[in-house]
Design brief:
Helices cover 20% and strands 36% of the residues. It is α+β, with helices and mostly antiparallel strands and 97 residues long. It is built from one helix and five strands; from the N terminus they run E-E-E-E-E-H.
Length: 97
């Protein structure tokens, strides 16, 4: 790639396991879900966006559904710490292979 070409990175995302004490339940269409994973994306302006994902509490083959992350300081801290850790790992990548 030459210096004259623009390199466009369209997405940067990480998946983060929510520690047990920070997990929560939410309801969608009458079904209760246990939220256990965050998907964190870096937006083009440098801010972060996050969605929580989980499975039905009752078990079974229910869909893996996304939910809004509650505005809680401990969850905001988790997102920020995960982004910092991901940045460190990206910065020390070893290339393909």
């Amino acid at each position: 790639m030459s210096e004259d070409e623009d390199l466009v990175v369209s997405a940067m995302a990480i998946n983060v396991t929510i520690p047990g004490p920070l997990r929560w339940n939410d309801t969608r269409r009458g079904q209760e879900f246990r939220l256990d994973t965050l998907n964190v994306r870096m937006l083009p302006d440098g801010h972060l966006a996050a969605k929580a994902y989980g499975r039905p509490v009752e078990g079974g083959r229910g869909a893996y559904v996304s939910f809004t992350v509650p505005d809680r300081p401990e969850l905001a801290a988790l997102v920020a710490a995960a982004a910092d850790r991901a940045a460190e790992r990206w910065a020390s990548h070893q290339g393909l292979g």
